[in-house]
Amino acid sequence: MGKITLNAVRKSFGEVDVIPSIDLSIEDGEFVVFVGPSGCGKSTLLRLIAGLEDVTSGAIAIDGTDATELPPAKRGLAMVFQSYALYPHMSVRKNIAFPLKMAGMSAQQQEAKVQAAAKVLNLGAYLDRRPGQLSGGQRQRVAIGRAIVREPKAFLFDEPLSNLDAALRVSMRQEITELHQSLKTTMIYVTHDQVEAMTMADKIVVLNAGRIEQVGSPLTLYEKPANTFVAGFIGSPKMNLITGAAAQAEGAATIGIRPEHLDIVSDGGWEGTVGLSEHLGSDTFLKVATDAVGVVNVRAGGEVTLRHGDRVRLAPRQGKLHRFGADGRAL
Amino acid sequence: MARKTTTATKTLVTALAWGLGFLIFFPILWTILMSFHSEGDAIKSPFEMLLSPWSFESYAEVQTRSNYALHFFNSVVISVGSTLLALVIAVPAAWSMAFVPGKKTKDLLMWMLSTKMMPAVGVLIPMYLGFKNMGLLDSLTGLVAVMTLINLPIVVWMLYTYFKEIPGEILEAARMEGASLRSEILYVLTPMAVPGIASTMLLNVILAWNESFWTLQLTTHDAAPLTQFIASYSSPEGLFYAKLSAASTMAIAPILILGWFSQKQLVRGLTFGAVK
After folding, report:
1. CB–CB of B192 and A98 under 8 A?
2. How confident is the model at residue B275 (pLDDT cuts 50, 70, 90)?
3. Which has the closest alpha carbon to A312: A270, A280, A281, A254?
4. pLDDT > 70? residue B268
5. Spatial CA neighbour of A2 closest among A64, A74, A71
6. How far, in Å, CA of A15 to CA of B62, rounded?
7. Which among B167, B183, B191 has CB closest to A102?
8. ipTM, two decimals
9. Which tens digit of pLDDT belongs to each residue from B3-40?
C-alpha cells in the first residue's frame, strides 16, 4: 500500500514561503510526476514527503496514518537522489544491502535480496565494484537497487536522470516505467523535463512558485490546460500564446494554439514570413513572423520544404484553439 | 594551450627550488652536524668543524645529564593525549557545524579562530596563577588540557572543512534507509572522513609536540616534554653548543620520522578542498 495525502502543507524558509499551501492526494500504485521550472518547490515538496524537511504547518498522511512528525526512516519510503548518493567506500553489494543491514536482517537474507535486485537491474557482474568504478547509468541502477530491496510503500525520485546523457536518459526512463509496471508500487518522480513527465506519468502535478497549477493525466494537461502557465509549460515545442486583436476576436484575453495545430493553407489565415526553418526529417519546425499575430512556432510535416524568407499562410485547426481570460485561466 | 617551458627555464626553476629547499633545511642539517662533534670543535669556524673528527660524546653526555626517556614519554603523552581529547570534542562539534548549521555557526567558527590570533603571553599570568592554585603546575594533566584547548580551534576547523566536502545527500540517503544517528556517523560519515581525521591527527600531534611556550612556562621536570629538555641545554654560560644540538636532534628525530612517513597524508590534508 502506498497512498499519500498532503493536507494544507506549508513550508517556509525564514520569511520566504516556498510552498504556501498544498493539498494533494496520491493513490496507491500511481506514478505521479511533479513538474515545474527550477525553483518552483517541487524538490522541496518531495523532501517534505520524505521527511528530510519539516513542514511548517499542515499534515502528511501515509496509508491513512499521520506521518508529519515521523523521521524519514520510519515513513517506509525509499528515495533515489539526483547525485545517486551512493556510499563511495562500500561495494555495490554493500550499498544495496545497507538498508537491509540497518533493518537488522540476517546476512543470508541480505544476500538473497541483493542477488534478486541485481538480477532485475542487470548489476550481477558489478556487485564487488565500488561506485567510483561504475558509469553514470550503472550508478543510477545501484541507487534504484538500494531503493527496491527495502520494498518501500513508495519510491521518491528526485530528478534521477538529469546527470545522464540524452541516449541513456531515454533508456533509463523506459526502465523506470517498466519497473513501475512490474512492481506496481507508488512512485513520485520530480523533474523539470516535461517530456519525462508526459511519457512516464499516470498523473502530472504542475507546480509554479510553490503552488499547484494543475493536476491531471498527461493528455488532460495537453488537451485542456487550466491556465496559460500549464499551456506554455506542457508540450514541445511550446504552445503559441497570442494576445491582442486576434484574441479579442475570439472573446478572450489570450488565445493559445499548439505548433502542431497550425496548418499551412493557400488562402485566408495569418500571413507571414518564414524566419527559421529546421528540417528534422520527420518534422519541420518553422518560426514564422506573421503580420497579424507576431512570431509563431509551427510544427509541420517532414515533407514541407519552406525556407528562410518564404511567404506562408497559417490557420489554426478547428477546435484546437485554447482561450484564456485576463487572469490567465482557461475559459 | 599548455604553457611553453624551455629546458633552460626548467633547469633554473629546479635549481632555485632545490636551493630554497636546502636553505630551509639548513638549520636542521647544521644542528645534526654539530651534534656529532665535540664541544671544543663545535665552536670552531664551520669549515674547521666539518674537518674535525666525528664523535658521539655530546650524545653520551646528554644521556647522563638528563632523562631523555622521561621527556620523550611526556612529549608522547602530551601530543597524543591532547590530540585524542581534541578529536573527541571536535568530531561532534564539526559534525553539527557542517550538517546542521545555525545562523551563528560562521561567527562561532570565526570566533574560535580569533583566539589563535591572541599572543599567548597575554594570558600567561592568569593561566600561571590558575594552574598554581589548582595544583596543575608541572603535571601532565594540566599540559594535556592546555594543549587540547590551544589546538581545538584548528582541529574543529580542519574537520569542519572535511565534513563540508561530504555531500549531505549521502547522509540523507542513510537517514532514509533507516540509519540511526549512531549508524549514520559510524558506518557512513566516519569511513568517508577517515583520511581527513587522520591528517588532522597527524598535524595536531606535530603542533603539540613542537609547542614550546606553554610547555616551557608550565613545567619544570616531572611533566617536562622534549622542548624543556632542549631548553635545559640553552645556557648563557659555558660550552653547550654540541650538547644543545644533540638534544635538539634527539627531540626532533621522532617527529621528523613520523612526518616523513606520513607526508603524503599531511599534504593531502592541508590542501584538501582546495581543488575539487
Report:
1. no
2. very low
3. A270
4. no
5. A64
6. 69
7. B183
8. 0.82
9. 777 888 899 999 999 999 999 999 999 999 999 988 88
- Determine, for residues A87 and B188 on separate chains, whether the beta-carbon distance falls below 8 Å: yes
DSSP for A198-264 reads HHH-SEEEEEETTEEEEEE-HHHHHHS-SBHHHHHHSSSSPPEEEESHHHHHTTSSEEEE-GGGEEE
- Give residue-wise pLDDT tens across range B99-155: 888 889 999 999 998 888 888 888 899 999 999 999 999 999 999 999 999 999 999
Q: In chain A, where does the domain assigned CATH 3.40.50.300 lie?
A: 4-230
Fold of A4-230: Rossmann fold (3.40.50)
Instruction: Kindly report, residue by residue over A78-130, the tens digit of the pLDDT.
Output: 999 988 899 988 999 999 999 999 999 999 999 999 999 998 888 889 999 99
Sheet of A211-216: strand order equals A77-80, A154-158, A186-191, A31-35, A203-208, A211-216
B194 pLDDT tier (thresholds 50, 70, 90): confident
Confidence of residue B274 (pLDDT cuts 50, 70, 90): very low
Interface size A-B, in CB pairs within 8 Å, comes to 59
Q: Which of residues 44-103 of B touch A (CB under 8 A)?
A: none
Over residues B50-63, the mean pLDDT reads 87
Q: Do B172 and A78 touch (CB under 8 A)?
A: no
All residues at 6 or more sequence positions from A90 whose CB lies less than 8 Å from its CB, including other chains: A98, A130, A131
CA–CA min distance B179, chain A (Å): 6
Q: Does B230 touch chain A (CB under 8 A)?
A: no
Cell of B202: 597527524
Of A172-186, A220-234, A315-329, B220-234, where does mean pLDDT reach its minimum? B220-234
**CA–CA min distance A270, chain B (Å):** 52
Are the beta carbons of B192 and A89 separated by less than 8 Å?
yes
Residue A187's pLDDT band (cuts 50, 70, 90)? very high
Q: Are A271 and A286 in contact (CB under 8 A)?
A: no
Q: Helices B241-261 and B263-271, interaxial angle, to 10°?
A: 70
The enclosing H or E element of A169 equals: helix A166-183
Calculate the CA A90 to chain-centre distance: 31
The three three-digit cell numbers of residue A203, written as one number: 498523473
Mutation site, A47, A101, A105, A159, interface B, largest B CB count within 10 A: A101
Q: At which residue does the C-alpha cell 627555464 appear? A: B9
Q: Are B214 and B124 in contact (CB under 8 A)?
A: no
Torsion (CA) A272, A273, A275, A280 in degrees, nearest 10: 80
Q: What's the rounded Cα separation, in Å, for the pair A264 and A300?
A: 8
Within chain B, which residue ranges are assigned CATH 1.10.3720.10? 66-232
CATH class of B66-232: mainly alpha
Residue B53 has pLDDT above 90, yes or no: no
Question: Where are the CATH 2.40.50.140 domain residues in chain A?
Answer: 250-324
A88 in Cβ contact with A137 (< 8 Å): no
User: Is the domain A250-324 a CATH 1.10.287.690 member?
Assistant: no
Adjacent-strand bridge partners of A311: A273
Task: Report d(CA B189, CA A282) in Å as an integer.
Answer: 52
Out of A52, A77, A83, name the one closest to residue B167 (CB): A83
